[in-house]
# Entry
Amino acid sequence: MQTTTDQNRQQLIEYINQLPDRPYRDSYLIAVLHKAQELYGYVSRDAMDLISSQMQIPTAHIWGVVTFYHYFRTQPPGRYQISVCLGTACYVKGAAEVLQAFKDRLGVEAGQITEDGLFSLLEARCLGACGLAPVCMINDKVYGQLNPDKVGRIINDLRKAAR
Amino acid sequence: MSKITIYINGKPYKVEPGQTIMQAADKLGFHIPRLCYHPKLSIEGACRVCIVEVEGMKNYVASCAFPVSDGMKIRTNTLELRQARRDIVELLLDNHPQDCHVCERNGTCELQRLSYSMGIRNRHFEGQRKDYPADESSEAVIRDPNRCILCGRCVRLCSEIQQIHNLSQAYRGFKTVVMPAYNIPMKDSVCSCCGQCVNVCPTAAFLEKNHTKEVFAALNDPSLVKVVQFAPSVRAAIGEAFGLEPGHNMEGQLVAALRRLGFDYVFDTQSGADLTITEEASEFLERLQGKGKLPMITSCSSAWMKCMEQFHPDLIDNISTCKSPMSMTGAMVKTYFARRLKVSPEKICSVAVMCCTAKKYEAARPELMVDGLRAVDYVVTTREAAWMIKSAGIDFLNIIPEPFDEPLGISSGAGVIFGTTGGVMEAALRSAYELFTGQTLVDIEVQAVRGFEAIKEGKVVMDGQEIRVAVTHGLGNASKLLDMVREDPKRYHFIEIMGCPGGCIGGGGQPYAGVNAIPLDEDALKKRAQVLYDLDRHRTIRRSHENPAVQRLYKEFLQRPLSPISHKYLHTHYKAKEPRGVIPRS
Ligand code: SF4
Ligand code: SF4
Ligand code: FES
Ligand code: FES
# Structure
């Protein structure tokens, strides 16, 4: 049986193979990394090694690119993926404080994941729920009219639920 | 192309077009301060220490990246410019540890020199300091990101010259750190241990792993017999660490100084080099007769060996099985010499002073153990040896030169030139020719393999058979040459590869560039090479197999080249290693 990793690898290789040779392969590195993140949920070391050998790009170079851009994650997403909206409507209504509350309570920065692997924190643009601003999305669920206190409660609830 | 006129600080000068302001100014005697620029590397234009004022430009321009044009009016030293440059360097200092008095590069640091020449005499702000763990995992090269000022020279050197691509600037802004892929420890990376990043780093962010403490401890242990050897290129460069211009032979002074430090026996790695050549020339002749793969590729450069295992394992069968001169000398110290002294090899402390950081890695390789012991217990670089001598209060420059000890102190001229690119090939040809044809090679200076071109080719005819050889130095050049070999495996019979630019004389453990010099300066390398060629020319014995010490070694211990006992102690085999390196197609 094929594992998911095998499938991911195969799909990534197929994606790389269909890239045009011009102007030169390296210029598609970012696109390939996006594809890897889409497949694996993050840019795994396995994916970077594979990209390196398939595209003949040194791993150090790939690592430099992946860590430079905020939108690449190098760790698997947490069980709860929290995307805090920083769109205009939310921002005006205090999204910055909400984000800070998440950071403080989880002890991580945006783009990071808690040590127990439970939460990952991301910044997002408008989630299309401006009426409920400020909002965040946790996995598929939207949480509205947030404030620092509410953030505390949400996290506690999820921690309990995860036990 | 006809010359153009530029004005520097109000005076007109005729200069060649098509160069940068910095290049033009250098030739006119204006040394514009600089940091990220290095003449052998691509231009990064990142540090902005080299800014100048160009009339008509709104902002100051980076002179290392900006081309001259006709009529250009440049100012290099206005008061505002001096202030702006000083601010730039002060910003670097804000995030720097500022503990120069405990730093390994105290006195050889470019940042120190720069802040002095900028006139920075007091500090106004306390910036945010970096707080990263130092990576001391590697046997050879350690990394301390807290001292890094992000000039990027190491990254470019490792990628462009060595083509190892081990380093990159990861993350961004204040959090940028120079590191190997995935932030893995250096010891698990594709690093070749060449130490060239140490050579180009302006600060102490890359250093050799220091072993001077261990050596001082051994020197103070009365139960040990202390034996030291040093490499050819050490004598050609160590004077620079004591303020001499490049190009002085300090062989006798170094022997004397090592005795003053407390070594009981001072041997010459060149003696081991003669042994290497005798074995290697014999191995080559065997391969030529069909026993083994051609082209044969030399194996004495430890950085090249590590690079080969991780980047070119498809060529393992082409690699000479001969150990390096250092490891051969060490092996003889722990066997032949121990027996002569009638002491147990465990009681011998074997030290090597090397121009190289990768030799530290080599000395620790399990496959090079001799009867369960390390052939060389500690390797110190030229720099570390110079420091030991200074710190023990030995007046190196005025010491009376002394000769080496017997039996591993005698060497031929062939052993001397090992230290420079092309030397091993020339030495091997001198011996192989005679062993093969039974005749003396009349013109023993093989000019085609001398000099600093990236890839040198030569031909010798032995008994009507044409032998085609190639020589290269620097791991990036090596990769190019090996691609040529993959394309046409019959192109050469014998190849010499040295991991460092210029060969061992340009090793990663050599003295740091002086105040008015740049790291890897080719003129300095040439002067070091000349020391070795002069030594060779003044030798009466210029062929390795004629070295009486080597002949005696065979008679009393090794029997003959490639004998079973030679194989046991002087030869080894390499294996492919992970992680595998990738060289981008250019
Ligand atoms: S020692 Fe050589 S190979 Fe290793 S990181 Fe430094 S320059 Fe690169
Ligand atoms: S480690 Fe040294 S050479 Fe490399 S970027 Fe930092 S300061 Fe420059
Ligand atoms: S701005 Fe936050 S949901 Fe639209
Ligand atoms: S030396 Fe010109 S920008 Fe650094």
The mean pLDDT of chain B is 96. Residues 189 and 579 of chain B are 7 Å apart (CA to CA). Chain B touches chain A through 22 residues (CB under 8 Å).
